[in-house]
Amino acid sequence: MKSGHGAIAASIVIIALYFGLPRVLPSSIDYRGEKIKLSRFYYSYEDYKDDPDNIDPSETARVQRMVTEAHIAHSFKSRKEAVEAVGTVTFPGYGSGGFGDDWQHSSVTGFVVEIPRANASRYFVFRVNNGSYELVDDFVDSSMPAISHIEEKDGSLIYSTDGKSQTLVRTIVKK
After folding, report:
1. CA torsion, points 98, 99, 103, 105, in degrees to nearest 10?
2. DSSP conformation class of 91
3. 35 contacts: CB under 8 Å, gap ≥ 6
4. Nearest Cα to 114, choosing from 100, 144, 94, 137?
């Protein structure tokens, strides 16, 4: 009979730890050298990544500001360096990627970074010249979700989305 009580007690302790421990364990993530409070403790990165409410609400504005204001250099020796720099802006678990018609044959190529809980994205556009990448546009936009094409024409960058006639035109500013 005593072994039955021990098994029940052990089960209760395990259940209490499973549900209670996450409340006292650290629930934060590092981003650009700062700790960001999460809404709860996550047992796995997949659980964190799949939760749309993963960032503590008190941190939302700070995270959005950090993503939109993060600095990167204006020139890079290779595509790999440019991709790595943009990657440092991406908040863990949120989306990023490249866009453009044909980065291997076009003079410009772009990258997009999701801004958590903002329904907006940050865009980085580079002019490619002999394998080096120069930042020519860096902006936040929510008016055109899923920009997929970019064209340089007459000192402007023309952004568009597959299947839609809407465009976003931005003048290239010399830096």
Report:
1. 170
2. P
3. 28, 29
4. 94
- Reduced to 3 states, what is the DSSP secondary structure of residue 89? coil
Could you say which DSSP state residue 62 is in?
H
**Which phi-psi region, left, alpha or beta, contains residue 15 (left: φ > 0; alpha: ψ -120 to 50)?**
alpha
Residues 103-147 pLDDT 10s: 556 789 999 999 999 999 999 999 998 989 999 999 999 988 788
Structure tokens at 139: 């902006």
Apex 115 CA angle, 79 and 100, nearest 5: 35
Per-residue model confidence as pLDDT tens digits over 29-76: 999 999 999 998 888 888 898 999 999 999 999 999 999 999 999 999
Q: Which residue has 């395990």 as its token pair?
A: 14
For the chain, how many structural domains are there in total? 1
Question: Would you say residue 113 lies in a domain?
Answer: yes
Asked if the structure places residue 5 within a domain, the reply is: no
- Torsion, Cα of 73, 169, 113, 103 (10° steps): -70
> In DSSP terms, which residues pair with 52 in a beta bridge?
none
Contacts of 168 (CB under 8 A, 6+ apart): 141, 143, 144, 147, 158, 159, 160
Give domain status of residue 145, yes or no: yes
The whole domain housing 95 covers 10-171
